[in-house]
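Render this sequence as a predicted structure.
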Amino acid sequence: MLKVEDLSVYYDGLRALHSVSLEVEDREMVCILGPNGAGKSTLLQTIAGLLEPRAGQIILGDRTIQGLPPHRVAALGLALVPEEGWLYPQMNVTENLLMGAFPKEARGQARERLDLVYRLFPRLKERRRQMAETLSGGERQMLAVGRGLMSNPRVLMLDEPSLGLAPMIIKDIMAALVRINQEEKVTVVLTEQNIFHALKISRRGYVLENGRVALAGRSEELLASEHVKKNYLGL
């Protein structure tokens, strides 16, 4: 479904990714883990077309997509929920969601997608006429995830979806991602510093350190890894 091969990216003149390779299968949930500055956000932004790689390939399905502008990547079925959401603060919840249905292929299904988002996040339906700037942090994250779903993506990528949220809200967000993956059959890729939560819901994971893949494996293998226990779980 999604393959990254020997990807190297420079950001502000510095090399942010060093020959990174990973693969995500159709309908799989995969997490990309690591500390701040490891290159997680750079990786997702490059896959989404927001940054241009210096070297390497990005393949979605049977098509090479590196170098395509973001709107073309989105039209091919890849959606990015960026860190902190990038919402329109002076639009209400429904208006923000409808902005996510901008690919031509998604516009005809906007009503059905809106119903799906409101089923996943009933709180958003309750606040559908409320301005985004007045929502709580957890509600804003729900809105950002919902907007990503509005484009009817084949692959949904999320950058730090639990960042700054209370434990109960994190639980709700993670449960929604499981439903999106299992019930809606959407391939999910998420970056996280909250390694325990991410590995609990993902099938496989990659650990990025200093722009390189330091570890990769099934989630249970990474949870049992001494490197992960010592450096990320404090065990």
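Summary. The longest strand covers residues 14-24. The mean pLDDT is 93.
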